[in-house]
Amino acid sequence: xxxxxxxxxxxxxxxxxxxxxxxxxxxxxxxxxxxxxxxxxxxxxxxxxxxxxxxxxxxxxxxxxxxxxxxxxxxxxxxxxxxxxxxxxxxxxxxxxxxxxxxxxxxxxxxxxxxxxxxxxxxxxxxxxxxxxxxxxxxxxxxxxxx
Length: 147
Prior knowledge:
By secondary structure, the protein is an alpha+beta fold. It has a single domain (about 5-145), classed as Pnp Oxidase, Chain A, CATH 2.30.110. Helix content is about 35%, strand content about 35%. The protein contains five helices and nine strands; from the N terminus they run E-E-H-H-E-E-E-E-H-E-E-H-H-E. Strands 4-3-7-8-9-6-5 form a seven-stranded antiparallel β-sheet. A two-stranded antiparallel sheet has the order 1-2.
């Protein structure tokens, strides 16, 4: 079954997400489960700029979900590392073509999602996060424009 939203189908966007998990993906998944209670409390709060929440609508269920994420920013964009292949939340955001990012204490409408590489994403992160990104082998990122 293919879901269609805004002219794109799920099968159209799946190849752009990532055919495989990064070297760091499985370890990040385990760490994420362990740290989720603390991350959920800090994400999106003022002065905690490395963490945000993404609020999106499920493409099949129509339910609204909120997820804590690590984030980098520029004046025009939000950039989110993607350590997991085929994350459902990414497919939902790509299908809807928008989401709401709660970052630094404010809600921001984010549109025009695109998968980018580490070279393009680097400008959204400071030197220490860039070092961590390289060390973890992350090479896929979701870029969203601030609306």
